[in-house]
């Protein structure tokens, strides 16, 4: 299998934009997977992200196994905690919640995941995860007990992303939170993009074609859509 990170890097260097559909095993049942896989294939999504903040232990593994039977689109884990790591996916976003100051999500969870990763064939992708205020108390804020960076604090968002890059992250993910009222603003996306030389992921609350285009035009290499897909909104 080809490397997910290499693919993102190569494609983004050419200015080609990527799409990931986010499935949360807490919100989607295994029964729905055949139909959902068809919808994702139709959209020609580049990746399926699987993860969430509140998934019961063991569910992700079954969920990914079933997805694998229905689609060849690479599956990338986007875990809310270490229990969501399963060897059946293709890659893992090894997240550090850089906008937060909770050691649990900066290093503890990462340490706890090591026994699961030792013999795994998952491609591990160091990812700087940065929460931007999306106007809702999103589950990721609640679970991580952290605060998001204000949409107006562009300098802090930029410096956080650049620090992440210097720390060796291979991707930066700007997150407004699932179901966000306010998407990450254009200026913030473009300033972050201007200051990093690694690919940029943007997600949270995107539900119109305009928002999707704005994210891409301002520098997102990969956009993640979860809620709008769940709600069958045609982008
Ligand atoms: C959440 O960025 C993703 O982690 C996607 O958010 O569910 O609002 O599309 P939505």
UniProtKB/TrEMBL annotation:
| Domain of life from the UniProt record | Bacteria
Q: Where does Mg(2+) bind?
A: 24, 53
- Lineage, top ranks: Bacteria, Pseudomonadati, Bacteroidota, Flavobacteriia, Flavobacteriales
**What the protein does?**
Prenyltransferase that catalyzes the transfer of the geranylgeranyl moiety of geranylgeranyl diphosphate (GGPP) to the C3 hydroxyl of sn-glycerol-1-phosphate (G1P).
Q: Which UniProt keywords apply?
A: Lipid biosynthesis, Lipid metabolism, Magnesium, Metal-binding, Phospholipid biosynthesis, Phospholipid metabolism, Transferase
Q: Which GO terms describe its molecular function?
A: magnesium ion binding; phosphoglycerol geranylgeranyltransferase activity
Protein name per UniProt:
Geranylgeranylglyceryl phosphate synthase
Work out whether the entry's keyword set contains Cell division.
no
The record, for Pfam families, names: PcrB
Q: Which Gene3D superfamilies does the protein's record reference?
A: FMN-linked oxidoreductases
Organism annotation: Lutibacter flavus
Catalysed reaction equations from the record: sn-glycerol 1-phosphate + (2E,6E,10E)-geranylgeranyl diphosphate = sn-3-O-(geranylgeranyl)glycerol 1-phosphate + diphosphate
Q: Does the keyword DNA repair apply?
A: no
Enzyme class comes to: transferase
Q: Which cofactor does it need?
A: Mg(2+)
Q: Which residues bind sn-glycerol 1-phosphate?
A: 173-179, 204-205, 226-227
User: What family is this?
Assistant: Belongs to the GGGP/HepGP synthase family. Group II subfamily.
Q: What GO terms in the biological process aspect are recorded for it?
A: glycerophospholipid biosynthetic process
Which HAMAP family did the record assign? Answer: GGGP_HepGP_synthase
């Amino acid at each position: 299998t080809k490397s997910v990170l290499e693919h993102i890097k190569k494609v983004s260097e050419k200015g080609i934009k990527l799409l990931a559909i986010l499935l949360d095993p807490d919100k989607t049942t295994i029964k729905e997977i055949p139909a959902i896989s068809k919808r994702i294939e139709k959209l020609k999504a580049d990746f399926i992200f699987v993860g969430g903040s509140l998934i019961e232990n063991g569910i992700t593994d079954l969920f990914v196994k079933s997805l694998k039977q229905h689609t060849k689109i690479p599956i990338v884990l986007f875990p809310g905690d270490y229990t969501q790591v399963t060897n059946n996916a293709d890659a893992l976003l090894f997240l550090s919640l850089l906008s937060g100051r909770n050691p649990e999500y900066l290093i503890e969870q990462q340490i706890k995941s090591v026994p699961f990763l030792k013999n795994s064939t998952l491609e591990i992708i160091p990812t700087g995860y940065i929460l931007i205020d999306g106007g809702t108390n999103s589950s990721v804020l609640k679970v991580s007990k952290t605060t998001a960076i204000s949409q107006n604090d562009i300098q802090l968002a930029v410096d956080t992303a650049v620090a992440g890059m210097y720390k060796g992250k291979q991707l930066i993910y700007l997150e407004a939170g699932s179901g966000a009222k306010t998407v990450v603003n254009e200026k913030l996306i473009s300033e972050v993009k201007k200051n990093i030389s690694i690919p940029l992921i943007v997600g949270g609350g995107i539900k119109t074609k305009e928002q999707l285009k704005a994210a891409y035009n301002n520098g997102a290499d990969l956009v993640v859509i979860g809620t709008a897909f769940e709600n069958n909104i045609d982008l």
